């Protein structure tokens, strides 16, 4: 009877992975009393085959879930319509509540029938036995056996806790349950006394900004968090996850962030291969509709690196909602997991981000200054110009206020706090992070990210002459035009390198540098072009084109 109840309340099982010989427990590891013996994989179909009762019951419950999601998103309009028609009176609501209660009882009955169907299936019974054993005893053998199943991630046991590192428990400077530290925007009117009257005047605007950010704004910024989109992408996500596990020996893990969100991760270990880059770990930060199952993780994988992918809060198996604070909290526990559980030193970690993932990548670079390098592909400097692009001009004040208070993705500001090597990849046909049209390459916000970084690191070089020549170089839309501008100013790379190395040897590596202070205008132009070419690479493609492995290169450094 207890097993039947477990089948009724248990998670949905999607797939049974093929078990590889390399995954079998080493002979020197003793079996634990709570471990469960798994039969050879040859006797099982890798795709879980539900019985007819479970299959049909699952279809009914999935349909009910979709209808509930549609009802949730359309509820404001529905309530307004019902109110106008006079259907919200007590005489109308009571019969409706009876209908709703009857429907819930019917759905509960369908769930019980699904549980009976699972109970009659030996595959599901074995799975639920392994899951219960793992929850009782987190032994390595139990986790190894559980990793052979792909199921609803809510039931996956937590593998790593944000407070697990001993340094976190002893340090007062680490994150609290309120979250990690973020850079806060400065007040719009500095020096003005924030009196009670001013606070009352601001209250309607603040309430409006909050409502916009938590309804329309967040879903526009992170469409991947919308349940209906995830439902449509589910077959593709399951296929991508199966490829990572079965072909790349990926290991899935659940991390608990300081805000209570559970983060879905996938780790592919290449340290045992002959490829030297396998000793480096690339942490991938996906875009606003990207998932590690089908995202930018494939590029460093093809290049031979060890890779750690993770999903934004609210994406696929990760819980929560993707606001900047939650994003930073998630990134923090991912980096801690890489260091304290996977055993990588910060100097062996590379942060790679695509598009909106640049926010968490630059936050990690700012917060963990010892990481090896940062690679930002198709990213931007600040969210406000891109948000204004898609909203009406009459909403300019509301949009700016909402972004600054609730959705402040200040990538450039965070990146300037990082002292290590940086590579920016600009898509020459990008249609997403341009503020006009894709053909107008100067409206690509990746240009502004480069300029702000160079102006912070080399303020004397990026004076009037240097800034002007870099803007000319950024206007080039092909390699031929770039080379033409480069040769026009007769850039001597050996001279530029010698100047930079001499300055570093005398003054140290910390930015900002005052190099170029006593230099001619021609010398500053040469240095500015040389640095721009080292910090930014062009890729002739649109925003969503996967980056080929040969284009995944380590950033330049002295």
From TrEMBL:
<dbReference type="GO" id="GO:0047372">
    <property type="term" value="F:monoacylglycerol lipase activity"/>
</dbReference>
<protein>
    <recommendedName>
        <fullName>Phosphatidylserine lipase ABHD16A</fullName>
        <ecNumber>3.1.1.23</ecNumber>
    </recommendedName>
</protein>
<keyword id="KW-0812">Transmembrane</keyword>
<feature type="region of interest" description="Disordered">
    <location>
        <begin position="24"/>
        <end position="43"/>
    </location>
</feature>
<dbReference type="GO" id="GO:0006660">
    <property type="term" value="P:phosphatidylserine catabolic process"/>
</dbReference>
<dbReference type="InterPro" id="IPR000073">
    <property type="entry name" value="AB_hydrolase_1"/>
</dbReference>
<keyword id="KW-1133">Transmembrane helix</keyword>
<keyword id="KW-0443">Lipid metabolism</keyword>
<dbReference type="InterPro" id="IPR029058">
    <property type="entry name" value="AB_hydrolase_fold"/>
</dbReference>
<feature type="compositionally biased region" description="Low complexity">
    <location>
        <begin position="26"/>
        <end position="43"/>
    </location>
</feature>
<dbReference type="InterPro" id="IPR054518">
    <property type="entry name" value="ABHD16_N"/>
</dbReference>
<feature type="transmembrane region" description="Helical">
    <location>
        <begin position="60"/>
        <end position="84"/>
    </location>
</feature>
<dbReference type="GO" id="GO:0052651">
    <property type="term" value="P:monoacylglycerol catabolic process"/>
</dbReference>
<keyword id="KW-0472">Membrane</keyword>
<feature type="domain" description="AB hydrolase-1">
    <location>
        <begin position="281"/>
        <end position="408"/>
    </location>
</feature>
<comment type="function">
    <text>Phosphatidylserine (PS) lipase that mediates the hydrolysis of phosphatidylserine to generate lysophosphatidylserine (LPS). LPS constitutes a class of signaling lipids that regulates immunological and neurological processes. Has no activity towards diacylglycerol, triacylglycerol or lysophosphatidylserine lipase. Also has monoacylglycerol lipase activity, with preference for 1-(9Z,12Z-octadecadienoyl)-glycerol (1-LG) and 2-glyceryl-15-deoxy-Delta(12,14)-prostaglandin J2 (15d-PGJ(2)-G).</text>
</comment>
<feature type="domain" description="Phosphatidylserine Lipase ABHD16 N-terminal">
    <location>
        <begin position="3"/>
        <end position="152"/>
    </location>
</feature>
<dbReference type="GO" id="GO:0016020">
    <property type="term" value="C:membrane"/>
</dbReference>
<dbReference type="Pfam" id="PF22990">
    <property type="entry name" value="ABHD16_N"/>
</dbReference>
<dbReference type="GO" id="GO:0004620">
    <property type="term" value="F:phospholipase activity"/>
</dbReference>
<dbReference type="GO" id="GO:0012505">
    <property type="term" value="C:endomembrane system"/>
</dbReference>
<comment type="similarity">
    <text>Belongs to the AB hydrolase superfamily. ABHD16 family.</text>
</comment>
<dbReference type="Pfam" id="PF00561">
    <property type="entry name" value="Abhydrolase_1"/>
</dbReference>
<keyword id="KW-0378">Hydrolase</keyword>
<feature type="transmembrane region" description="Helical">
    <location>
        <begin position="96"/>
        <end position="116"/>
    </location>
</feature>
